[in-house]
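Structure (tokenized):
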């Protein structure tokens, strides 16, 4: 007989799949990585999406479509994550180079039909209601002074576009709004969601084993037989492995859980708990600020795994954008007041050297 799947704490996993670009348009409410954002509210976009470290613009990382069935105002709901590509802004356990937004709509709204859209292959919907940056797809707040038809979020992106392509077509009867400027955006993938399969028996075995090993190690410490973890020849190999494993139990638990489905890049568990990669830099309740729009507490919603880095096509040098866990916290009430795109909170936990 197959083992029963545990329903409590069921986690949904995100995997990346190549997809035709037309499937990742706003009208199809996608979850996706890279490319330009598929905005939900098509008019009231964030004015500026800025890195707190260098004060330059962030680019789109990913978005997760996460409606809440029992809230009318959350019939459509998407979380957007942006980041700064400058590796100098990536510091250990620092999240100021990331920005995220929550946007939600009722079923009856001014942008989308009441019923699900019909899938029309290779058809591009021109649904956006405001100007977008030609380079990154964020809100375009300024335009090319010559042609007046191409918009940008910043002077930096205007310069990049001019050197890349716009100079050749400016003032001609051509638009480059859909052209991709090489080296700015991330490769685009669809995020496909599936349930994590983990049995109750397996969960119980893991918990029991961890408790037994901890009790055994504590007993050895009390008897003075555990020695130290660094260079003590009196510790046999098995005890050494046990001590290191206990010291790094978060890392061991993380790798064991993820290795069952190694291609996962995202874990969704709204109201649950993150799967931390280290015992270092785990937030307390006071570290997670309340929602600035309604005052309610924020709760964990999903986490982005370091496996996602393998798909970003970033610089593979020692100094590069990196993370262990990106834990996303959102308003527990998913409140509807305030701006259309409400800022939420991200906690970044890096992989410490002792866990490798």
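Design, position by position:
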């Amino acid at each position: 007989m197959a083992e029963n799947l545990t329903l409590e704490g069921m986690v949904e996993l995100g995997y990346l799949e190549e997809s035709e670009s037309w499937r990742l348009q706003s009208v199809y409410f996608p979850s996706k990585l890279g490319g330009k954002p598929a905005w939900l509210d098509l008019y009231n976009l964030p004015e500026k999406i800025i890195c707190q470290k260098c004060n330059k613009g962030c680019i789109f990382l990913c978005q997760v479509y996460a409606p809440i069935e029992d809230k009318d105002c959350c019939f459509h709901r998407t979380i957007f994550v942006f980041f700064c590509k400058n590796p100098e802004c990536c510091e250990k356990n620092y999240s100021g180079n990331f920005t995220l937004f929550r946007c939600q709509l009722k079923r009856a709204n001014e942008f989308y039909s009441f019923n699900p859209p019909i899938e029309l292959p290779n058809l591009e919907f021109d649904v956006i209601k405001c100007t977008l940056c030609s380079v990154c797809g964020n809100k375009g707040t300024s335009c090319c002074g010559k042609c007046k038809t191409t918009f940008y979020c910043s002077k930096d992106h205007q310069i990049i576009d001019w050197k890349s392509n716009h100079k050749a077509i400016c003032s001609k009867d051509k638009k480059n709004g859909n052209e991709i400027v090489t080296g700015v955006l991330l490769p685009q993938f669809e995020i496909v969601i599936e349930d994590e399969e983990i049995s109750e028996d397996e969960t119980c075995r893991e918990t029991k084993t961890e408790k037994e090993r901890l009790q055994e190690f504590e007993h050895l410490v009390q008897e003075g037989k555990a020695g130290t973890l660094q260079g003590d020849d009196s510790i046999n190999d098995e005890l050494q492995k046990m001590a290191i494993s206990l010291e790094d139990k978060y890392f061991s638990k993380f790798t064991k859980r993820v290795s069952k489905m190694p291609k996962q890049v995202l874990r969704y568990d709204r109201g649950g708990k993150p799967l931390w990669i280290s015992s270092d830099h785990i937030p307390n309740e006071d570290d997670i600020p309340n929602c600035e729009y309604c005052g309610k507490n924020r709760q964990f919603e999903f986490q982005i795994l370091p496996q996602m880095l393998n798909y970003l096509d970033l610089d593979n040098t020692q100094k590069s954008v990196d993370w262990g866990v990106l834990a996303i916290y959102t308003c527990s009430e998913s409140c509807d007041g305030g701006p259309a795109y409400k800022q939420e909170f991200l906690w970044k936990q890096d992989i410490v050297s002792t866990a490798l």
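Reviewer-requested clarification: The helical segments are 155-169, 200-222, 237-247, 249-259. Residues 144 and 314 are 29 Å apart (CA to CA).
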